[in-house]
Specification:
With 97 residues, this protein is mostly helical. The chain has helices at 3-24, 26-44, 51-96. Helix 1 packs across helix 3 and helix 2 runs antiparallel to helix 3 (51-96).
Length: 97
């Protein structure tokens, strides 16, 4: 593994840690919950002839979920990067002995 690949793995690990901090932040957690609740309640309170409004609310709800999922994917990528860096360090250490 070359230095650029190691740097990329380290960057993924750093981003993962930042994403984890964000998802664990009460302000952001509450924002996701409030938005999902708002969109869900609004969706169920639309009238029979408000299909366009329902579509927009459904899309908004989906976007919130996709943002959350994006952070989760960054965290998972960081876990893999961490494992790869650990394996690399172990390989280097074993080669010295």
């Amino acid at each position: 593994m070359n230095n650029q690949e190691q740097a990329n793995l380290q960057k993924e690990l750093t981003q993962s840690n930042k994403a984890k901090q964000l998802l664990e932040n009460d302000l952001l957690k509450n924002a996701f919950i409030k938005l999902k609740t708002l969109y869900t309640e609004s969706l169920f309170n639309t009238g029979a002839n408000e299909s366009e409004t329902r579509e927009k609310l459904w899309l908004a709800y989906q976007v919130v979920g996709k943002v959350e999922q994006h952070f989760i994917e960054i965290i998972e990528t960081g876990k893999l990067a961490s494992k790869q860096l650990e394996d690399l360090r172990n390989n280097i250490k074993n080669q010295k002995f």
